[in-house]
Write a structure and sequence with these properties.
By secondary structure, the protein is of the alpha/beta class. The chain has 3 domains: 276 residues, HUPs (Rossmann fold, 3-Layer(aba) Sandwich); 125 residues, no CATH class; 58 residues, no CATH class. Helix content is 46%, strand content 16%. It has 16 helices and 17 strands. A 4-stranded parallel sheet has the order 4-3-11-12, sandwiched between helices. A 4-stranded antiparallel sheet has the order 7-8-9-10. Helix 8 links the parallel strand 11 and strand 12. The longest helix is centred in the last third of the chain and has 26 residues. Bound molecules: adenosine monophosphate and zinc ion. The site of zinc ion has 3 residues, from loops.
């Protein structure tokens, strides 16, 4: 359904710092790129907040009927410990400390990342390209930037010439930083680097003898600069100009500023129409970050193995907690906040499940059509999930009133309410119906128990009871199959 035709989406563009009407380059199609994780350690819940928001953006665009190509990369090389192109590669460092291959580090944390995404009900992106899978393209882009006069080689490393670029373009267009101010702030690095100016950033770094992640290039055996992979992979899969580019706020500078400079130099056109940035998840008032140890891992919340929370929480509750805040606000994580979300989440899903049992009445006491419009209006207003959730709770109130016979809905309104509520709760917010999950676990448990009792009956040669269990289960649509390994069952 082409719902986008009657829903004018507005997106807060970090570039213009205003909410703008969203108009894709090609009608009906959206190209979206989101900077993915650097796989040198487990993604923490802060990272997951950012990825989860873009999962909801993706889900809503799909719900509106857009054909979306969603690219989220895996950074598996080139991300140095320090944003100013200094220090060791994060992955190489971990490999050195643990005495394993860098690609073992990459594999371990990519697998962990995918496990988290599965547990938290993420939709997979359309393409998940890696930096190391695009070294050739990165070398080609560097050649192009050098040929255009915006990069220079020193001792086997290649740097982007920010001053040259800034003569005609605006380095700082996204972050609002001024090249002159950057000069003052980065003086500490002067003299320690091959760069002409401290603001210049690496496109290629020559690897010293100890550096294990290295590739041949026209300049040296080395590795690409971190910012380059995103310019290369976004252009390769989405084109020179595409619709949406996302990431956490901390990536605005230098990462996204550098991406714009690289891409614009090569193509001459504005690379991205809408830049979207999520605000940070904090813990104890401080930004959640691996480097400070101030973090919790998403799977630790599910297992309860952590020192921060009083108990375990489900992935759907954590999703709900994230979506209760606007993505552009700081969100503080705590056990109390999660417990409050857990209550709200249970109330919402209880109402969604009860909705199935409601019978239609002759009149409606609630204006479902207006309510539906308000739900869409909330999401159309820059993906305002907390406002959407407040509207979902208006529906919860009505459902509970119907339960108590103090409200009613016609058959037509009931259908609209069901469709809309299910669409927003499950398809768009990606919440999971744990009651259903629990029920299927319970059914499995009960059938296993009956299989055990039937086995005991057979051992006692009580064939009548054994057959009765089998036949009555068949009537309920549960088929037992006796095999060498024991009895299994299938649900028809
Ligand atoms: P990284 O793996 O460090 O490149 O980060 C992956 C994504 O997580 C980036 O978009 C970061 O901006 C984002 N991110 C990092 N820390 C936080 C945080 N505390 N809250 C929200 N997003 C974060
Ligand atoms: Zn990136």
């Amino acid at each position: 359904m082409e719902r986008y035709k009657e829903n004018q989406l507005k997106v807060y563009n970090s570039l213009s710092k205003t909410k703008e009407n969203f108009k894709p380059i090609t009608d009906g199609y959206v190209g979206m790129y989101v900077c993915g994780p650097t796989v040198y350690s487990n993604a923490h819940l802060g990272n997951v907040r950012t990825f989860m928001f873009f999962d909801v953006v993706y889900r809503y665009l799909l719900h509106l009927g857009y054909k979306v190509r969603y690219v989220r990369n895996i950074t598996d090389a080139g991300h140095l410990e320090n944003d100013a192109d200094e220090g060791e590669d994060k992955i190489a460092r971990k490999a050195r400390l643990e005495q394993v291959e860098p690609m073992e580090v990459v594999q371990r944390y990519t697998v962990d990342f995918h496990d988290v995404l599965k547990n938290y009900n993420f939709l997979p992106p359309s393409i998940e390209p890696t930096a190391t899978g695009h070294i050739v393209e990165q070398i080609e882009m560097i050649k192009e930037i050098i040929a255009k006069g915006f990069a220079y080689e020193v001792n086997g490393s290649v740097y982007f010439d920010v001053h040259e670029y800034n003569k005609k373009e605006n380095y700082g267009i996204l972050s609002g930083r001024k090249v002159e101010d950057l000069l003052n702030n980065t003086r500490a690095l002067d003299g320690q680097s091959d760069k002409k100016n401290p603001q210049d950033f690496a496109l290629w770094k020559k690897a010293d003898e100890k550096h294990i992640m290295r590739w041949p290039s026209p300049w040296s055996d080395g590795f690409p600069g971190w910012h380059l992979e995103c310019s290369v992979m976004s252009t390769k899969y989405l084109g020179e100009s595409f619709d949406i580019h996302g990431g956490g706020m901390d990536l605005k500078f230098p990462h996204h500023e550098c991406e714009i400079a690289q891409s614009k130099t090569c193509s001459g056109v504005k690379p991205v129409n809408y830049w979207m940035h999520t605000n940070m998840l904090s813990l104890n008032g401080q930004r959640m970050a691996k480097s400070t140890g101030n973090y919790i891992l998403p799977n630790q919340i599910l297992s309860g193995e952590n020192n921060i929370l009083p108990k375990s929480f489900s992935a759907s509750v954590v999703r709900f907690f994230n979506m209760q805040a606007n993505y552009r606000s700081i969100l503080d994580f705590s056990g109390d906040a999660l417990e409050a979300s857990e209550k709200g989440h249970a109330k919402l899903l209880e109402a969604v499940n009860f909705l199935e049992k409601i019978e239609a009445a002759k009149i409606s006491t609630f204006n479902v059509k207006t309510w539906k419009k308000e739900c869409y209006a909330a999401m159309n207003d820059d993906f305002n999930t907390p406002i959407l959730i407040s509207h979902l709770f208006e529906a919860v109130k009505v459902i509970n009133q119907i339960k108590e016979n103090t409200a009613s809905l016609t058959a037509e309104d009931l259908v609209i309410l069901k469709e809309t509520l299910n669409a927003f709760v499950f398809d768009v917010l990606g919440l999971m119906n744990e009651n259903m999950q629990n029920n299927s676990e319970k059914i499995n448990g009960v059938v296993e128990l009956l299989i055990k009792l039937r086995k005991e009956a057979r051992e006692n040669k009580d064939w009548a009871l054994s057959d009765q269990i089998r036949d009555e289960l068949i009537e309920l649509g549960i088929q037992l199959k006796d095999g060498k390994e024991g009895t299994t069952f299938s649900l028809n």
